[in-house]
Sequence to fold (378 residues):
Amino acid sequence: MNLFKYVWGMLFRLFPCPTRIGLQRIGNPGRNSPVLVTCNFYITVRRLLRKLRGLDAWLLIADSKGVNVWCAAGGNEFDTRSVVSVVKTSGIGDLVEHRRLILPPLGAPGIQANEVEQQTGWSVKWGPIRIKDIPDYLKNGQHRNENMKRVTYDWLERLDTAMGSLFPFFLLGAIGFLIFGPNLLMEYLVVGAATFVFFMLTCPWLPGNRGLTKVIFVEVILLGILIANLMVNPQNRFLTQTHIIMAMIMLFVYGSELGGLASTMSSDFDAYLSRLGIKSIGNAFFAGTLRTALLTGHRVLTYYQDTCNGCRSCIEVCPMGCWGLNENKRAQFINKDHCTACCACLVQCQVEAIKAEPKFNPDKKDKERVAHESLDKR
Ligand code: SF4
Ligand code: SF4
Fold:
């Protein structure tokens, strides 16, 4: 059962893979041990338990409908309500003397920290983004260095995330070949897997910052090879035209979805599906969220410096390092081009200095707001 769940969670991340909600002991926790909160996605909980081996802590597993932190927070399934509920029903208040929760920062688009504090009486701290950094964070007096606040998306994370999201599409292709062209099935599997690994390993170095732009670069090279191959050696058995065409189709699928797989990129697919009125596939939400409103240009991210009180919440939760403080101790949008419209900053801003507004707001003078309009041009 556990092996089945593990494989399901790894390869079918578009669909829920839940584990038990509630309180879990790690090691031999006491009344001053830290209290971590996470989602109830099976793979996340397993990885956390493995990484925290040898430490003493309490783990609160909150309801996210069996979806990982990032997707569930974006789809409003891992939210304030789920955290408040697990704090109130788990009995953790009787087991520890302090009242401090450590939350996963990629949950910030769904969980309003101030609401959790008001409804539970517990204070909220954002922990490291990556599970592997949690032991160091705990040993370091719960201090996060800059690395622990930023999404990196290295090659292992790319392979891991992309495999979980793209495998169902890969499988659908295999079923198609099995039914309509079984003699090409083995070639499809080899070419599909090889293009997947190639693209995920090389994508940071390909030109452009969106999946489709990167793919177009490779597609043009492949098209050149295809034409040259057709002209020079139409009977080439090693690098057949069929294989090249297969690779081009697979790359297009991978590139279209790449943006939606990572918090470091904006999604191409989400915006197009949202425009077509398709609201969700499995765990992936394309419409009805603030993020899609920003990505499709229905809204723009706006910032009102006069309203800002300098609380730093936006700086703490932005996984892309877009916010800083200016000399007046007010927030400043320093890295607009890295923004992926995750909405964590505007969800955490208690005074509504950051908003998602219609592009033209007749009630506001344009000079009062800093509108991040480059998002809607994507
Ligand atoms: S913009 Fe909002 S969240 Fe950011 S520092 Fe100002 S008040 Fe705090
Ligand atoms: S600035 Fe952009 S990337 Fe950063 S938290 Fe806000 S919406 Fe997310």
Notes: Residues 374-378 have pLDDT under 50 and may be disordered. The two ends are 43 Å apart (CA to CA). Residues 308-314, 331, 348-349, 351, 353-354 surround iron/sulfur cluster (ligand 1) (CB under 6 Å). The chain has three domains: 2-148, 155-262, 272-377.
